[in-house]
Amino acid sequence: MAGNTFGTLFRITTAGESHGPGNVVVIDGVPPGLELSVDDLRPDLERRRPGQSKVTTQRKEADEPEILSGVFEGRTTGTSIAILIRNEDQRSKDYSDIRDKYRPGHADYTFDAKYGFRDYRGGGRSSARETNVRVAAGAVAKKLLKTWHGVSVVAYVKQIGNLAADVPNPEQVTLEQVESNIVRCPDAKMAEQMVALIEQMRNEMDSVGGVAEVVATGVPPGWGEPVFDKLKADLGKAMFTLPAVMGVEYGAGFGVATARGSQNNDLFTTLDGRITTRSNRHGGMLGGISSGLPIVIRCAIKPTSSIPQDQETVTSSGAPTTISTKGRHDPCLLPRFVPMGEAMMAIVLADHCLRQRATRL
Amino acid sequence: MAGNTFGTLFRITTAGESHGPGNVVVIDGVPPGLELSVDDLRPDLERRRPGQSKVTTQRKEADEPEILSGVFEGRTTGTSIAILIRNEDQRSKDYSDIRDKYRPGHADYTFDAKYGFRDYRGGGRSSARETNVRVAAGAVAKKLLKTWHGVSVVAYVKQIGNLAADVPNPEQVTLEQVESNIVRCPDAKMAEQMVALIEQMRNEMDSVGGVAEVVATGVPPGWGEPVFDKLKADLGKAMFTLPAVMGVEYGAGFGVATARGSQNNDLFTTLDGRITTRSNRHGGMLGGISSGLPIVIRCAIKPTSSIPQDQETVTSSGAPTTISTKGRHDPCLLPRFVPMGEAMMAIVLADHCLRQRATRL
Amino acid sequence: MAGNTFGTLFRITTAGESHGPGNVVVIDGVPPGLELSVDDLRPDLERRRPGQSKVTTQRKEADEPEILSGVFEGRTTGTSIAILIRNEDQRSKDYSDIRDKYRPGHADYTFDAKYGFRDYRGGGRSSARETNVRVAAGAVAKKLLKTWHGVSVVAYVKQIGNLAADVPNPEQVTLEQVESNIVRCPDAKMAEQMVALIEQMRNEMDSVGGVAEVVATGVPPGWGEPVFDKLKADLGKAMFTLPAVMGVEYGAGFGVATARGSQNNDLFTTLDGRITTRSNRHGGMLGGISSGLPIVIRCAIKPTSSIPQDQETVTSSGAPTTISTKGRHDPCLLPRFVPMGEAMMAIVLADHCLRQRATRL
Amino acid sequence: MAGNTFGTLFRITTAGESHGPGNVVVIDGVPPGLELSVDDLRPDLERRRPGQSKVTTQRKEADEPEILSGVFEGRTTGTSIAILIRNEDQRSKDYSDIRDKYRPGHADYTFDAKYGFRDYRGGGRSSARETNVRVAAGAVAKKLLKTWHGVSVVAYVKQIGNLAADVPNPEQVTLEQVESNIVRCPDAKMAEQMVALIEQMRNEMDSVGGVAEVVATGVPPGWGEPVFDKLKADLGKAMFTLPAVMGVEYGAGFGVATARGSQNNDLFTTLDGRITTRSNRHGGMLGGISSGLPIVIRCAIKPTSSIPQDQETVTSSGAPTTISTKGRHDPCLLPRFVPMGEAMMAIVLADHCLRQRATRL
Question: Which of A132, A334, C151, C160 could form a disulfide with C210 if both were Cys (CB 3.0 to 4.6 A apart)?
Fold first, then answer.
């Protein structure tokens, strides 16, 4: 199994490369009767789309989805939903010089090691282009979560370089706040500085990393399984499947290393007759199972590997050379990561939503 | 599927609770002909065992494994291997007062929310006791990796509280160095301070968190799958399945947030005729596929939730109360985490080892 | 994945050999709150047990189950249930001469071809001994089906050699009727002849095949999935996983080959206000989904391969030789197949019961 | 999981309905470096295509495949392969009157029971139209099997109604023989009578069932897993996933019911230095593992449910009515079943080929 399927009940299977005809996702496990059309998919695809603003790559892709199956008269049928997004902007000339050179930070070398050869037109299957159909599937998952349980999933940029946003209440961040600026940071002041930093990176022919925060509100207590399919484990995996993610933490995250138990434990209390905790250092999951508190996850995203300056590398036969990535790339991956992070969290939550339903009367 | 299975080809399925008859693992996918006996399992079980030193819980468990199947005349047969570890120290009296109170930081509340009731004798299925059979399975995975590919997996304590060890070359840390002190930190000086800090925690009826580092050397380039079963994703999930893990990062980890692409990219070069990189900020994985460099992962582990001081909480009916955990618990989870982290990494690597074999001539 | 797991949501994983310490099953996906004890497992285990009557093998096995996990205070907890059945009658001497000879009809040769060597003490993993834990898991599935939906699963012997029972209404056969004679045939007159035929086979040092029918009543319409996990496909696979099954058919089965559409179609009608069909040539499944009519499946079971007369064969090095199976074997597998067939059908139905629950509000 | 995925390592996931935009398959697990183009897919698609001859439906579908991913410069890349076949002949008017009536023998009623509503334009997801992408995937599997192991898979019509072909040596039947007549029966004389019978059925506005035989030659000993993923079990399931299959048997099949062990056992011998059996009543599988002998499976296929004569039925609200299927349907499903049966067998064998590779040095 070559790893193109994700999920147990709400399950997606994808195919496609950056410079092939297109990408496709088959979504299995969508319940019948959910209203769905391409209009549900377009907003998040638009947020992920290259060329959307001055802080992203200027490459153009319409990313127009076609629903091939599983929807009849505007409603899901309960059978598998296939969504196709064709590639448009296939300038393979841009990539001809990377045929024999290994781009630093990319999967060129590891793909050659794994398969014996590779599709050298851009990243092929390793390109982030494949995430467009994940975002489409995520939109379906969001619709299910919202319709059945009122669950919302919102992500935003928390940090770029040394610029860290102040977001005191992650669970109160709205989609509107996130979309109010082109870096997708709910701290408007910091957002301006982030835009400036990204433009500086482009001017300096460099790139910069950052941290995104992904938050789900409204998840009822009880989702997630003990032991291997803990919600934190499935969410952790989901985030690490996204390109450039180098670290994932939830709740207090790496901050727990220096904490004491007496400080770190969130104390149980009641609110409006429901059991809850006074703080949320546990990030909404205890024993890997949702507690009813907001689920809060952070992802560390590396600076774009493709930079338009000369870098030392080797050819596939090991000869020293240099490479300068000529393509049009994002100087910072964070703004376009936001819808991807949301999509993967929504897909995991939809899966565990269905799993929990299966065994409770 | 209630999440008691992990892996695709090298696959483990577990069952068992902290206070039931015992824990069992079924390991599917072990190749035939591998020499194996309980002697291969005992060393890591001993490292995970409660009561092993003064810095761990004083609870006693022999953790003696019995191989129920899959081994004949000292060799694996290629069929499923079952390993049973019976529980011995079942003092259920210790836990009688937590029947109706939710322990802060534990899964008591989320289990009740999920299942409607729970095994209240300790953590039941949510207890870290279940990890003993994972460690046994990890020993089998280690044997496979070592025998077939010379791969080694070694973990150690990197940080406890504010005490951070100096480990300049993770790939050179040996099992002997790790086992040379009871906190399992290869920085001997820092290890002494760590021991003192843990004893202080016990005296103060508190607990402390930390960071563990898990390293695999000898992994050939080409393991891992693109998209969903990236090696980083499966390893990330594996670590998050372990109790108390709140964050996972690999290579430069969260440090990438403040890095620039020109600094962060590891440049390709050759060494002894093989392609490699000059640095290892990528933690041995590019595009989710092993690069041949050491795989380096760090896990943030929270301070033990069970502390012997009064904490506010509620009963299952929401009434305010206090609880003080009377059981014998680790003041710091790090020393016993080490074999667990190794086991989960070995299980993931063994899985991807087999997966890579399946499709290459 | 070495094929020791079966099912999607109600999922069993097994391990064990005929002459090892024992067999174990881990059942994943059992809902919480179901009353369960070993007393629920014993009746079917007793029906499968060797040495139960004069028409079965005289080998003795107590087949006493131990529930290792997943049950607390008499109820399932929702976590994985492990059941262990230790082997008792391990007369390995009986099998010493088959170490190098391939028994006709057995898996000795194919195991050697697959694994390079084999556990030569009896069939090892290929022995029908492994089915004891399947029967235990089946008893859990039956309990779930009966408790939640009133579904019953009953199997019986339909034919042995040329002796075919007359069972006009499969859905009306009761467990009591089946258990009223030692061959488990609800046609009492034919049962007597079947007993005589089996005894004749034993006297003639030979064996005989037959057909078993497995029937589920009370299954609501709507279980099963389109395309690959059709109920007929999962039931078909389930039956073929059982040793000695050479053919599976449902409803009109192979009889459809000579039928015309105008005869074969079951016409829809209503009964007591519910939609049903006038006949049940479709065996309770249309498009692979349950129709609400009884599910009726038949399995063809080959005559026992082990017979106590000389048969030509070869050694593992290809030298001609003869072999006569000295062990104590069933002259006819049918009577003991009955609980196995029920178990596998119940496991499939429990799985699809949970799967259907997951996606319907 | 709604059952749209099949296989473990060589794994297909499909989507699509009879009257939607098209059908798509994602094939996961195809090794890298295999030569592949649409020309490899077309021959089998042509054999499955409606409208191919006078004995099939006269409905027209070009069934032109498009490879969307996973192939680069004429070779498979090792990543997932997506194949899209668009629907052309969508005369939804033909089906408007079946919106509220349940067609006998079809899944209309069971889909309504399962999902609450259905795509009433033909069978939707339950239509055999979905098999076109399975046949495309099967062509990929065949290519892998032939290239790596010289395995061939050939199916043919064995019986239609009472007309049973004489095929003394299943393993010697060639594709050319099968394709030499429009019913795909290698017994040329019987083929003529079969054509006449089918034409008679069309004239009588009726349909007829039959038996197909599917044969694989060249499969090495050792494929298949003990217990649940026996080759016979996976092949059995594969066949039962195909529409209209009511029974599956291998080797001596249901004939074993009346056989004695002394007759039924295939005796081991050697041929050209290799171990084999003198006869093949075991159909090429012992203990569920391939023996090296030809794998021989038979499928019973019911007469087409859609017949152009009035049949009694009910509406979705239970009111009595009659229905006569006006569409253009096959009077006999057998000729077009042949490539479907081959495809599913090839997919199972490719899967077990990869699985066996994973764990043997």
Answer: C160
Rounded-to-integer distance, Cα D193 and Cα D159, Å: 11
Q: Taken in order D42, D46, D48, D51, is the CA torsion positive or negative?
A: positive
Q: What is the pLDDT of residue A325?
A: 79
* pTM > 0.90: yes or no: yes
Can you tell me whether residue B241 is helix, strand or coil?
coil
Task: Please list the alpha-helical segments (H only) found in chain A.
Answer: 38-48, 108-115, 131-149, 175-179, 188-203, 231-240, 261-264, 334-359
- Closest CA in chain A for residue D66: A21
* Helix H or strand E segment including D238: helix D231-240
Task: Give per-residue pLDDT as tens, C26-83.
Answer: 999 999 999 999 999 999 999 999 989 988 888 888 899 999 999 999 999 999 999 9
From A35's Cα to the closest Cα of chain B, the distance in A is 27
B188 token code pair? 């001997």
Element (DSSP H or E) covering residue D155 = strand D152-160
- Token duo for residue A305: 């590997």
CA B324, CA B316: separation in Å to the nearest integer? 16
Which chain C residue is nearest to residue D8, measuring alpha carbons? C1
| pLDDT for the residue A315 | 95
- What's the one-letter identity of residue B48? R
Query: Which of D34, D148, D359 to mutate against chain B (most B CBs within 10 Å)?
Result: D359
Confidence of residue C122 (pLDDT cuts 50, 70, 90): confident
Name, in order, each residue with C-beta under 8 angstroms of B125's C-beta and a sequence gap of 6 or more: A226, A227, B16, B17, B111, B119, C69, C77, C79, C80
Mean pLDDT score, A279-295: 98
Closest to A194 measured CA to CA, from A207, A185, A206:
A185
What residues in A contact B249, CB-CB < 8 Å? 246-249, 254, 300
Q: Could you write out the DSSP letters of every residue in B40-95?
A: HHHHHHHHH-TTSSTTS--------EEE-SSEETTEE-SS-EEEEEE-----GGGG
> d(Cα C121, Cα C124) in Å, to the nearest integer?
6
Residue of A nearest to D32 (CA): A115
CB atoms within 10 A of CB B131: 23
> What was the pLDDT predicted at B89?
66
C343/C44 Cα distance (integer angstroms) = 9
Q: Do A358 and C9 touch (CB under 8 A)?
A: yes
CB contact under 8 A, B16 and C114: no
DSSP state of C225: -
Contact (CB, 8 A) for B71 and B77: yes
pLDDT digits (tens, 9 = 90+) for B195-217: 999 999 999 999 999 999 999 99
Q: In 3D, which of D78, C294, D109 has the Cα closest to residue B361?
A: D78
Out of B69, B118, B125, the one facing C17 most closely (by C-beta) is B69
Q: Does residue C92 register a pLDDT over 60? A: no
Nearest to A268 among B125, B290, B314 (CB): B314
pLDDT on residue B42: 97
Contact A15 D78 (CB under 8 A): no
How near does any CA of chain D get to the CA of A150, in Å?
22
Answer whether D306's CB lies under 8 Å from D106's CB.
Answer: yes
DSSP per-residue string spanning A71-131? EETTEE-SS-EEEEEE-----GGGGGGGSSBPPTTSSHHHHHHHHSS---STTGGGSGGGH
Identify the pLDDT of residue A92. 53
Rounded Cα distance, C17 and B79, in Å: 9
Q: What is the rounded radius of gyration, in angstroms, for the C-alpha atoms of chain C?
A: 21
Q: Which among B1, B15, B67 is the nearest to C68, CB-wise? A: B15
- Please state, in angstroms and rounded to a whole number, the distance separating the CA atoms of residues A82 and C212: 41
Give per-residue pLDDT as tens, A87-99: 986 655 666 678 8
